[in-house]
Amino acid sequence: MAHSLFTLPESISIPVQGRQQTYPVGRIFCVGRNYAAHAAEMGNEVDREAPFYFTKSAPNAVLSGATVPYPPGTENFHHEMELALAIGKPVFRATSAQAWDAVYAYGCALDMTRRDLQIRERNKQRPWDLGKDLEAGTVFAPLTLASEWSPSDDTRIHLSVNGEIRQDATLVELIWKIDEIISHLSGYYHLRPGDLILTGTPAGVGPVQAGDVLDGAIDGLQPIKLTLSKAE
Ligand code: MN
């Protein structure tokens, strides 16, 4: 019987509030430009033609509380505070009701970004991977079950760096709502447990430095924390 030549590092599994079992991270889908004020600060116009996505790989995700090095290859490393959705059942071409039903849990996430590389590649009409799918570049806080929390228009999402508020918005600003994202994305993928969707970041993204401490929160969910150490 054949065996694998080596064992891959295990991807993280996210704690779930009030549960013994954790939620293993499979695929990570991210929605681009889903808050109008953030699209504007990035020099883009907002349209409602269709949402767009990029992906980040599971082995590059870490849990809240981690201390990670300032990444290589960038001089403009940015925070993006986001609401994450954790899919709990298989769903394909979901209706709005099926979309809501497919959400197992919600949590805070950070979509850390090498902004200089993202913009350089964007301007050359190349993929964003160098800017977005960096090592330790996605952070997940413990999840809260969808049966115990639901988003509302006045739910506040915010992030501070070294205690200074940088991002502060409410979920009413989401251009594509949660059910709309799942309905649309599930037209292209057979969504399944392990799939996480980051729903985009509000305005106020900006650079972080080695030694900075990032603290984010969304009303009613577990907070998220990331500390940056010196570059390797
Ligand atoms: Mn993002």
Question: Your description of this structure?
Answer:
The protein is α+β, with helices and mostly antiparallel strands and 232 residues long. The protein has one domain: Alpha-Beta Complex (Fumarylacetoacetate hydrolase, domain 2), CATH 3.90.850. It is built from 5 helices and 18 strands. The strands form 4 sheets. Strands 3, 4, 5, 8, 9, 11, 12 and 15 form an 8-stranded mixed beta sheet that branches. A 5-stranded mixed beta sheet has the order 6-18-17-13-14, with no helix packed on it. Strand 13 and strand 14 form a beta hairpin. Helix 2 crosses helix 5. The longest helix has 9 residues. The radius of gyration is 17 Å and the shape is globular. The N and C termini lie far apart (41 Å). The model has no long low-confidence stretch (mean pLDDT 96). The protein binds manganese (II) ion (MN). The site of manganese (II) ion has 7 residues, from loops.
Considering the chains and any ligands shown, give keywords for the structure.
232 residues; alpha+beta; Fumarylacetoacetate hydrolase, domain 2; globular; binds manganese (II) ion
Overview in brief:
By secondary structure, this protein is an alpha+beta fold. It contains 5 helices and 18 strands.
Secondary-structure blueprint of this entry?
Blueprint: E1 13-14, E2 23-24, E3 28-31, H1 36-41, E4 53-56, E5 61-63, E6 67-69, E7 77-79, E8 81-87, H2 96-102, E9 103-111, E10 113-114, H3 115-123, H4 129-132, E11 138-140, E12 144-145, E13 156-161, E14 164-170, H5 178-185, E15 196-198, E16 206-207, E17 213-218, E18 224-229
Parallel strand pairs: 3-15, 5-11, 6-18
Antiparallel strand pairs: 1-2, 3-4, 7-10, 7-16, 8-9, 8-15, 9-11, 9-12, 13-14, 13-17, 17-18
Helix pairs in contact: 2-5
Bound molecules: manganese (II) ion.
